[in-house]
Amino acid sequence: MWTPERLVDVSLFVSERDVEPVTVALMREAVLHPNVHESEHWTPAARWAELSEVYRGLLARVEKVADALKVDADEAPADRSSPRPKRDRPALESDVLRLETRVGGWRDDLASAERDLRELEAAVRQVRLLAPLGAPVDELRSLRFHHLSIGTLPNENVERVAAALFQVAFVLIPLQRDADRTLIAAATAREDGHVLDRALRSAFFEPVALPAQASGAPDEAIATLERMEADARDRLAALQEQGEALREEVGAHVARTLRDVRTHLQLCDTIRHFPFQDGVYVIGGYMPAARLEEIDALLRESAEGRLVIEALPPSPGSSRSAVPSLVRTPRWLRPFDILVHTYGVTGYDELNPTLIVAVVFTLMFGMMFGDLGHGAILTAIGVALAWRGLSAGTVLATAGVASMGFGALYGVAFGSEVFHALWLQPLHSIFELLIAAVVAGVVILNVGMVLNLVSARRAHDPMRFWLDKSGVLGLALYWTLLGGGLAVFQGWLPAGVWLLVLLPLAALTMFREPIEERLRGRRAHWTGNLVGGFFELFETVIGYFSNSLSFVRMGAFAVAHEGLSAMVLSYAGGAGGWAILLFGTVFIVGFEGMIVGIQSLRLSYYEFFGRFFQGRGTRFRPLAFAGGTDV
User: Fold this and answer.
1) Cα–Cα distance for residue pair 410/259, rounded to 1 Å
2) Are 519 and 465 in contact (CB under 8 A)?
3) Residues 590 and 355 sit within 8 Å (Cβ to Cβ)
4) Which of 88, 214, 397, 426 could form a disulfide with 137 if both were Cys (CB 3.0 to 4.6 A apart)?
5) Do the Cβ atoms of 145 and 189 come closer than 8 Å?
6) Bridge-partner residues for 568, per DSSP?
7) pTM of the full predicted structure?
8) Closest by alpha carbon to 516, among 553, 468, 587, 479?
9) Pair type for strands 618-619 and 324-325
10) Model confidence pLDDT, tens digit, residues 190-232
């Protein structure tokens, strides 16, 4: 829970005949994060790329059948048989062809019926638009001496088109006007038809086609088309019933074939990336060290002993940044993963901050939003969301409980003092609460620095451990400034002694970069770092004070929350009190609660996380079959 699981760098040397069962075992167990390295002599085998394309084509074909019958691969029962893409190819090709033959005719008839129905529905709509003309549709379609265009124009463009056609003889009749468009019939001599069409196109004309199925007067054409539309609906319904029967007959076979083709394609796509030479494949990657012996035995059984496994711990140094991190967060803590993942991914040598940030975020939220009543509302909302399966509901409910806890310490419910405060009453102890918030911030900052020391130690990074702003040097400078300055202010420590400690620490901070270069065995630029080092020292000192004082907002928000709640209560005592109380409570819980949540995240990310958590890791993504490990 506190650190990513220890991994080993594994290289498997597998023969051509055993690469399929070994890869299937790895994908079922989902334990190997691939780390493929090609070289001049070790390159992927081209035949697996070709086989992948074959299965990709099969998948496209069987998916068409499955889509027509509305069948999904999840409907197929789990199957623990071992897929073999080379061996199973003829059987799967035969299955897909048989299903296409069985379903293809019905699928084509269904598509044709749906297309016919759509065309008839469009034809009815089009003829209804032509009804104001009163002319037989077939006559409009077969004019010999005139060019006729029927369609809609934007209302404001009707007169513009008429003005643009002054060069030719034309007729433009508005038939029907809607809110933004007008149905028109425009006619001219056949030889001037191109002029009319060009003017209409420039005015955003949308033509209404004369349907081929329509003939006779508009009323007669509409009646005929509606009868044809009813027949088409009946035909479509009959085909859909036939499809249900077909689904009952071959649906299970389709689901099983779809699942098998997908599985074989995933297997081919995986093997095609393995480096290959002289009949041997190399499967490389990272695996949990705790499962190495178990997986070793499983793979040797799959390959009947024809297998070589090399397992080494990840090499130290910069290459460890490429090592993925496998973080196993307890189920009860997983909802808080979102707070970490929003910031970054835990690195292999970093601490998993989920529990720490859950505690810090919750306590900061509770302090700023402390109220028994409002906290109870947040808790109820969070529980309801969590009951619906939303992980954010657990975070919200926990923040609500923290708010209730601080509400008890403040003795406040819905902005009213319901009993004597167990700790501080925000409106009556403003200064004390602000000081408490800063003290809490100092504690949080120092926890972050200590965690940075632990992370630097785990990462074997001595420079970060000793010279980082949040390392030993930074921690010493912070407490010399804060603790020593307070001791001098109180008269407990002579100023000379304080400066005797402070100045060397300031000098080390100022020349941290050249010192680090020197310790790494590289040339150090002492004089060239004077200006940059001074500003770095200045930024560091200012940062320590601003970071510490930044937490004063926790006390300020606690005071503002109670003040706003008290104001709502005071206005609720007059006319319309219940409405004011309801609206005010919704505003406080919703809007102010959101602001407090944002401030809690800001303090967690920028003042706390930045001390020890880089979040530049790579998530552990093992080879696995999509949708689970059972195939």
Assistant:
1) 60
2) no
3) no
4) 214
5) yes
6) none
7) 0.76
8) 468
9) parallel
10) 888 888 888 888 888 888 766 776 777 778 878 888 888 899 9
